[in-house]
Every structure is written in structure tokens, then in C-alpha cells.
Write a structure and sequence with these properties.
Helix content is about 20%, strand content about 45%. With about 110 residues, it is of the alpha+beta class. The chain has one domain.
Length: about 110
């Protein structure tokens, strides 16, 4: 568990709209750090569902979609940059899976 895990953060998009996230994990690949974030409205509904219904249960959701942000230092300030490169995403996902496996092994 990292010091950031389960922290809530708010990011602004280019249009100034706020988006709220939960920090799931801080992952380091080589000398680059990444945040794995879960959007507050992080569920993708089944394509057949047109509107969200408060009575929906877990079976109504297809999957949880995590977002990966690279932490870049610009002029002495950390900035988060959304990762959209497939190879970079795969390397972060593999590192995260290794971290989860190591954590599971240490709990046994």
C-alpha cells in the first residue's frame, strides 16, 4: 500500500471542468512514476442501459476503467499527463500486476 493509495484528487481538463479521482496506486517503471486513477464515475454501463438507475447492482456494470497518468516535473512542479501509448500502458499494467502479486505473496 502506498502513501497515496485511496487519496482523492481533483484534476482540471482543458475546458476547466473538474474531474474527481481515487488514487489506486503509485507505480514506478524505471525512473518514471505513474498514478493509476479511478474516476469517480468510473463505471462503464452495459451498452443496453441508457440512463443510470440508482437501483442498479454490480451485475449491471461491465467493467471498471482505470486511467494511467505519468507524473512529469515541469519547471519544478509535478504535472499529470494522461498516458495513451499502448506500449507504455502495457509496461505500467505489468508493473502494477507485479506489485499486486508481491503484496499477495507477502500477505501469505
Amino acid at each position: 500500500m502506498t502513501e497515496h493509495e485511496n487519496d482523492m484528487i481533483t484534476l482540471l481538463d482543458e475546458e476547466g471542468q473538474e474531474h474527481h479521482f481515487t488514487v489506486e496506486q503509485l507505480v514506478v517503471v524505471g525512473d518514471q512514476s505513474y498514478f493509476i486513477l479511478l474516476p469517480e464515475e468510473g463505471f462503464i454501463m452495459d451498452e443496453e442501459e441508457e440512463d443510470y438507475d440508482e437501483d442498479m447492482d454490480d451485475e449491471d456494470f461491465e467493467e471498471v476503467e482505470y486511467l494511467v497518468f505519468r507524473i512529469e516535473n515541469v519547471d519544478g512542479e509535478d504535472q499529470l499527463v494522461l498516458v495513451d501509448d499502448d506500449e507504455e500502458l502495457e509496461s505500467v499494467a505489468a508493473a502494477w500486476a507485479d506489485m499486486e502479486e508481491d503484496q499477495d505473496d507477502s500477505e501469505d
